[in-house]
Amino acid sequence: MDKFKIERSEPLCGRVHISGAKNSCLPQMAAALLTEGTVRLENTPDLVDVRTMTQVLENLGVVVERAVDGALELDPSQARRVTAPYELVRRMRASYYVMGPLLARHGQAEMSLPGGCAIGQRPIDLHLKGLAALGAEISTSEGFVHLRAPGGLRGARIDLAGEHGTSAGATINVMMAASLAEGRTVLTSAAREPEVEDVAVMLNAMGASITGGGEGVTEIEGVRHLSGITHRVIPDRIEAGTFAVAAAITGGDVVISDCNPAHLTAVLELLQQIGVDLEQGRKTLLVRSHAPLRPFQLETKPYPGFPTDMQAQFCALATCCHGTSTIVESIFENRAMHAPELARLGADIEVHGRTITVRGPCAMTSAPVMASDLRASAALVLAGLVAAGGCLVNRIYHLDRGYENLESKLVRLGAGILRISE
Ligand code: EPZ
Q1: Cα(378) to centroid(ligand 1), Å
Q2: What is the reported pTM?
C-alpha cells in the first residue's frame, strides 16, 4: 500500500488548478444509463472512484472510453444488464447511483447493499423510500436489494427529510428515476448541494424537465425519452476548500484556479473569520495567510451550511489557531477518526460525542499516521505540512479515491511530499 512522506513546508505559494467534482461526475456517469445516446462528460477527474464507477457501468454493458482530451465518453446503447455486484459496490458506495436509472430504463435493478464505511452506517433508506414512492416494488435478500417496476414509474410527491437533514445521494437517485416516470414528481426536503444542481442541469440538457434542481423543492415532469449530450462537470468545491486550508495552514499565498468560490461560501466566510485574506473571482480564489490564525467554532450542516467534507481539514487547521476551536460533526456519526491520528502528530485534540475540541497552537511533531477515509487522509497531509520533521501518512489509497494528482499539485506549490509505493 502506498504512503506519503511529507516534509514540514515553507509557506505554499503559486497557482493550483482544481479538477472536476467527484461527487458530480459519479452520478452523471450513472445518468448515461437513462439514454441510448452517447454521453460525453468533460472536466472529469481521473480518480479511483471514477474508475470503479466505470467498472460498474461496464459490468452493465456500457462502453466507457477516455478520449484523448480527457473527456469520458459513455455508450449505453447495448447496456442490458441490471445487476451491480458486491465486489464493486463494496468498493464504492456511490455505485447506488445506478439504481434509479436502471429502474427507469429497464424496470428492474439488482444492487448489492453498499454496507457501511469508516464514517458511518451510510443507510440507503431515503433512496429506497423515494424509489418506492415512484412505484418500485422493493425487496432485500442475500445482501441484495431487488427493485422492480414492470409497469414503469409514476410521478409522486416525496419528502426526503432524514434525521440528518436530507440526502444528496437520495435526491439525485430519485431525480434521475423521476425524469422518465409518467407524470409529475415533487421532491420536498431535497438536497441543495451544487452537485445536485449540476446533475439536474445535465438531465435537462438530455431532455428532462426539472425545475428547482439544487433547491429545497425540486419538480420533475417525466418525459418518455432522454438523449445523449455533452456536459462539463463543475469544479470540485471540496478540493478547492482543501487547497484553501493548505494555503492557510502554511501561511501561504496561493491562487486557486478553475474553481467556483460561490460553492464555498460557508467555508470562505469561516476562513475570513479565522484571519485569512481572500480575494474571490468568478473562477479563481486568492488565499493569503499572513496573520496569526484565530480559533473558531463550526457545525457541519447540509448545503449551504458548512460541508461535512471539510470538517477534518479544519481540525488540522485548528492546530495552528491561537486558542480553543470547537468542531461539531452533525451529518455523520463517526467522522472523527482523524482526531487520534492528529494527536499522534502532537495535536491537543479531544472528541466528546459529536464535538471535537482543539486547543491551539499545537507543537506538531513527526510521527507515522494512518489514513482512514478520504477527507481524514487530507487532514493528515495538511497537518504533515506543519509538523516539525514532517510525517509519514500510510494507506493513502483513501486519498487516491477523491483527489486527482494531489501530491504533484502540492509539490508545484512548494510542498515536500513524496509517494512511496510498496
Ligand atoms: C454524499 O454522500 C457525498 N458522496 C459525501 O462525500 C458527502 O459527505 C455527503 O454527500 C454529504 O454532503 C458522494 O456524493 C459520492 P447523504 P451521500 O446521503 O449522498 C444520511 C466524500 O468525502 N442518510 O447526503 O451518501 C447519511 O447517513 C463523500 O466525497 C440516510 O439516513 O450522503 C448521512 O448522515 C463522503 N439515509 C446524511 O443522511 C439515506 O438513504 C447525509 O448523507 C441516505 C443518507
Answers
A1: 18
A2: 0.97
